[in-house]
Amino acid sequence: MTVILCFGDSNTHGTPPMQAEGEYRRFGAEVRWPTRMARALGWELVEEGLPGRTAQWGDAVMGPIMNGIDGLKIALQSHGPIDWLVVMLGTNDAKARFGASAELITGGIAALLDIAQSPEMQARHGGFRVLLVCPPPALEGVGPIANQFHGARRRGVELPRLYKDLAGSRGVAFLDAGQVIQVSPVDGVHFDAENHALLAEAVAAELRAEA
């Protein structure tokens, strides 16, 4: 059976739109886009979504474990062999406290692709392919965590072009999720159940096209 590892942040984990800062909730497996996608394809799924994860930085508030570079190494050495890796990160990298440009955020994604495509990791899994998903841009000024995402939309709208160019240079598949879904106006960051379903369909379709 084909094995797919989905590596991301709270929107891969399945966090619903937040109604209060600091709350923890999670959609059930029947709602989350990775499980819906894997079910549609008939593939085995490994879920690696961590709320707060960035592509390349530890977080001054949430801790060093938010660094996706370390997280991806751990995930690829914890699971396997896999046939596909789906990476969807960048939303948290656009937080105000990181002060990152869209180009710098894309650099973090490039580092993750370096890890995934390294001879060591490819040999460990017997070779696997990568789908890079660019998350939809955040909305600003709404919900309980709005203060963390000042300026995030401006950075977010620049990412699809940069991610697509990066994916092309690395020979990996690409999907711009912002062409399919949008974040919830409840908190400006997370996906509601309907958008999880739409993203699952889009990822499944892209993977079928790449098969």
TrEMBL record:
Superkingdom, taxonomy of origin: Bacteria
Keyword Hydrolase among record annotations: yes
SUPFAM superfamilies: SGNH hydrolase
Keywords from the UniProt entry: Hydrolase
InterPro entries in the cross-refs: SGNH_hydro, SGNH_hydro_sf
Matching CDD domains: SGNH_arylesterase_like
Gene Ontology terms for molecular function: hydrolase activity, acting on ester bonds
Gene3D superfamilies documented for this protein: SGNH hydrolase (3.40.50.1110)
SGNH hydrolase-type esterase domain location: 6-197
Name recorded for this polypeptide: SGNH/GDSL hydrolase family protein
